[in-house]
Amino acid sequence: MENENLKVRSSLWSNIFKLESDEEKILDLLRNFPAFAELKRKELKMIRKLVQVREYLPNEIIFYEGDPGVSMFIIESGKVEIYHTFKSGIKQELALLFAGDFMGEFSVIVEGNRMATARALTETRLLIIFRPDLLELIQREPSLGVKILLGFSKIFVDKLRNLNKDYLNLYELLHYEKQLDK
Q: Which of 21, 20, 42 is closest to 31 using CA atoms?
C-alpha cells in the first residue's frame, strides 16, 4: 500500500506561521508607505491595529467617483485601475496601480468626495485605513500624530509638485500648438 497520497498537515501550526507571515508582510507594506516610512516598529504596530484587510474579485468596484472619501488603501496584491468618467460618457484611465501602491490618501486626512473610480482588475487584496480610526490615534498619541501628518504632508507636496509640472507642460504644449496655428 502506497502512502504517497496521504498527507498530514497540522492546521494549528500552519495557521500560526501564516499569520506571522501575513503580519510581517502588512508591517512591511506600512513601512513602505511614505507617510509611515519614518515610524519605529512599535509605532507601525499601532498603525497596524487600524488596518482592515479586504479582498476584491476581478472587475469589482472598490469605490465610485463621487463617493464620500473616508479611507485610504494600500495594495497588498493585485492590480487596480483608477479612471474618471466625463459627463460625455467618455471613460479615461488615470492610473494602473500594483502591489505596494496606494490610493485615497487625501481622504484619510481631509473630508471630500472621491475624484475617480477604482476597480480591481485582478483578484486584489487591500489594506484599508479609515479616517476616524487614524484621527483617533493622532489625538491619542500626539507625537506619533505629528510624524504621521508630516509624512502625509510630504506626499501631498510631492503630488502638488508633479501636478504643477504637468500643468506647465500642458501650458507649454498649448502655447506651442497656438504658435503653429499662426
A: 42
* Spatial distance between the Cα atoms of 89 and 163, rounded to a whole number of angstroms: 25
Residue 10 has what pLDDT?
46
Q: pTM score, two decimals?
A: 0.81
Cα distance between residue 103 and residue 82, in whole Å: 9
Question: Of all helices (H) and strands (E), which one includes residue 67?
Answer: none
All cell numbers assigned to 161: 509638485
Angstrom distance (rounded) from CA 51 to CA 27 = 10
Question: How many angstroms separate the CA atoms of 18 and 6, rounded?
Answer: 22
Q: Where are the domains of the chain?
A: 14-168
Distance of alpha carbon 90 from the chain centroid? 25
Alpha carbon 63 to chain centroid distance?
A: 12
Fold that domain 14-168 belongs to in CATH: Jelly Rolls (2.60.120)
Return the pLDDT at 174.
85
Residue at grid coordinates 479609515: 130
- Mean pLDDT over residues 104-124, rounded? 95
CB environment 30-63: b (16+ within 10 A), e (fewer)? beebebbeebeeebbeebbebbeeeebeeeeebb
